[in-house]
Amino acid sequence: QVQVAESGGDLVQAGGSLRLSCIASGFTFSGRAMGWFRQSPGKEREGVATVDSVDSTSFADSVKGRFTVSKDNAKNTLYLQMNSLQPEDTAMYYCATSQRPLYGFPHPDEYNYWGQGTQVTVSS
User: Fold this and answer.
1) 10-40 pLDDT, tens per residue?
2) Sign of the CA dihedral 92, 97, 103, 106?
């Protein structure tokens, strides 16, 4: 059974940092496309950072230079390091994976396994 579970969300002041973790189970983690997404009230879910099936990383323009994404295959864990957080980064953050190979910066609809999300709130 494929499962992904996020953790690490918190309330942080603008300019601060957080690291989100996504623990995966039920599938072979290495070589699997995974991604971080976020959604705030009234907005569509958007891609934040992805690691595709050949371990290439991609980022939304709004987070480039501030966020990094990494996979630890030994721990079956995907990380999102978020620095210089801004109030506009406030959202529910989700981890997701796909049953089939994905490349580049896929649309959220390409992913078919999702976690429950972890809330990130950035105060000004």
Assistant:
1) 999 999 999 999 999 999 898 999 999 999 9
2) negative
